[in-house]
Write a structure and sequence with these properties.
The structure is a homodimer. Helices cover 36% and strands 19% of the residues of chain A. By secondary structure, chain A is of the alpha/beta class. In chain A, helix 4 runs parallel beside helix 5.
Chain lengths: 231, 231
């Protein structure tokens, strides 16, 4: 199913598992995907690989800063260890009006701790750190923490779960939701202000534990909601 | 549907909304319920009211300490503001071998903050505070944070959600799950060690926000799990 075309989406860290999974899922809906990586050769390699998986997809590969310049919406999908450095490097590339969808999770694994535990982030969450670091006028929401990279990557696998979206402006969250819900089987739920990312990010660590315990790729679903979540 | 009889369950704080909802839902499955409250008159009143709602149910009302002495499994369902004081008062009533299911959530509302925000608890979570405070030999798990008191209380309302259970011993979590899953529509998921309560407790604040935003009583469901979670 191809949806109406959309503006290009840049995915910073798209050579990683989550970013790559998002890239191919989004491209399959007709969204042009700009794959960013620290190293432009890796980005080009990932774009080529993605094109083989989604032959009709539109992919290009660039270093992260160049990727960010190509799109209005940017998904940040890097390990927490690299989030701060990446955002510093993007300071001159990001521009006012852009929407940054931060998917970073401060797992303790970033400092050789367990992936089932979280780090305390001074700002409260990785998303709040992102909001502090982006240039003025760049809008930040957080989302996509709980979606399994493995499931995204297996295109035959049906998705059926929620994406918990946090941000300080409803319009920004809706804009992220419109993009993310292009991917069949993902429903976005407004989970409040950006500070609520403290909880949504930590669900990743909880799910990593559940996945290991039950040998599954679990996701999150909120029950009891109505049909229209983004009127 | 009445399940095989079970030992009595004590619910500390059962004159509160969540505790009362659990009391009537559990009694409806044939479990004898010992209703505890700080004030024995209030406990007796709640037991009478519960008996009117579930005519076939077995209810008794006692002050919290007496209630705890009547049962092997104790559900602690009090506001965070009262958790520490309650556990101090139960120090001589709780006995080794008992299982305490802690449902306490350290909402910032406890200190006149927002119910969509959490307090930092020195031990990491309310459940870990409970584990520190109970006498040696009392086993502590956490559960039931995300189940809506309103939905529990409306007996006609079908439940269809998960209960995230944390604890340091699998056997303790299974024991809690066997009790909780008597309630139709609740499925228990092992979410790891007691320290993971930091995340499961904070989901309550997140759901309070979602409920207010969407005018619903949302619950949590983990997707992608198999059929047998407690073999």
């Amino acid at each position: 199913m191809t949806l109406p075309t959309t503006d290009p989406v840049a995915i910073v860290g798209a050579s990683g598992a989550l970013g790559f999974g998002l890239a191919i899922r989004l491209a399959r809906t007709g969204a042009p995907v700009v794959i960013g990586s620290r190293d432009s050769d890796r980005a080009i390699e990932a774009a080529t690989r993605a094109g083989e998986i989604v032959p009709g997809g539109s992919f290009s590969g660039h270093d992260n800063a160049s990727a960010v310049r190509e799109a209005h919406i940017v998904i940040l999908s890097v390990p927490f260890r690299n989030q701060s450095e990446t955002l510093t490097n993007l300071k001159t590339a990001l521009r006012p009006g852009q929407l940054l969808i931060d998917a970073t999770v401060p797992l303790a694994a970033a400092v050789s701790g367990k992936a089932t535990r979280m780090l305390g982030v001074w700002q409260g969450s990785a998303a709040q750190q992102a909001a502090e670091m982006v240039p003025d006028g760049v809008r930040v929401v957080s989302a996509l923490h709980t979606v399994s990279a493995a499931k995204l990557t297996e295109l035959d696998r049906a998705l059926d779960e929620d994406v918990l979206v946090c941000g300080d402006a409803r319009a920004d969250k809706r804009e992220a939701a419109v993009l993310i819900e292009r991917i069949e089987g993902l429903r976005c739920v407004d989970c409040g202000r950006l500070e609520m990312s403290r909880t949504t990010e930590s669900l990743t660590a909880l799910l990593i534990g559940v996945n290991s315990r039950y040998k599954v790729h679990a996701g999150i679903r909120l029950t009891g909601l109505g049909d229209v979540l983004w009127e």
